[in-house]
Amino acid sequence: MAQVVNDGKTANPNVLNLKEITHGLLFLTFDDHDVVGWRKAIPFFAQNNVRATFSLSGVIDKEALECMKALRGSGHTVGLHTLHHADAPEYIKTKGGAAYMKDEVKPQLDVCKKAGLAISTFAFPNNKYDDASLELLSGKFCHFRVGCGLPRGSAVANFDKAFTPIAEFEGEKFFRGFGVGEYYSSRLDDLEAVLDRLAKNNEVATLYSHGIASCAKGVNMPLELLVPLVSHARSLGIVMAGLDDVPW
């Protein structure tokens, strides 16, 4: 079954049949503007049959647009993360929904539309959202990356809110993720325990980070974590897909 995204023209050949997944589903998501690091990671993802999600913040200039096209062309999901990384609830409360769309969302959407890139995924800056922001953005996007409320430094594998059974995931719009990187005190053994749980229980989990690089610091994905993480997921038969690969 092919998925038709919101321009009515572009079909996604990678749409998932959730009933065929038996060993878990993992969504790797990356936010902000690491257009150089993300493009460098494309061959690694291709070699390991990984599709991921990349949501851009900031001005979508020529370099960023070329990155988005390269990612989309390699089967990944590309989404938006606002122009100035503004928290949606506070901005809408103080300036109104129309201003938020005009200042934070529409400039990015307009560039993508002009370039022929249909966008269906949105990652809330700082994972902050409420009913008003969801109502406002639901008319433009189909999938939303949010947080799961995991306390920083906690063992993810023991935090049930970070996981959803595959059987309950059909039609899900919200991808409740946890952060990976130095800032979150991420450890490989804990991440491998997450994957072990996914495979054992046939569950869904989403993680998020920013840039991708060797020895990455802060809220970024070190290759020293990403490479063994992907290897372990493959050994367990876990599917690694993009947010737009989920039927909606």
Report on this structure.
It is built from seven helices and 13 strands. By secondary structure, it is an alpha/beta fold. It has a single domain (29-216, 224-244), classed as TIM Barrel (Alpha-Beta Barrel). The strands form three sheets. Strands 3, 4, 5, 6, 7, 8, 9, 10 and 13 form a nine-stranded mixed β-sheet that branches. A two-stranded antiparallel sheet has the order 1-2. Helix 5 links the parallel strand 6 and strand 7 (143-147). Helix 1 packs parallel to helix 2 (62-73), helix 3 packs across helix 4 (97-114) and helix 6 runs parallel beside helix 7. The longest helix has 18 residues, at 97-114. It is globular and about 45 Å long. Mean pLDDT is 93; it is low at 1-10.
What share of the residues does DSSP label as strand, in percent? 15-25%
Number of strands: 13
Query: Briefly, what CATH class?
Result: Alpha Beta
**The CATH topology:** TIM Barrel
Helix fraction by DSSP (H/I, runs of at least 4): 25-40%
The secondary-structure class comes to: alpha/beta
Total of DSSP H or I helical runs spanning 4+ residues: 7
State the distance separating the first and last CA atoms: 12 Å
How many domains make up the coordinates? Answer: 1
What CATH architecture do you see?
A: Alpha-Beta Barrel
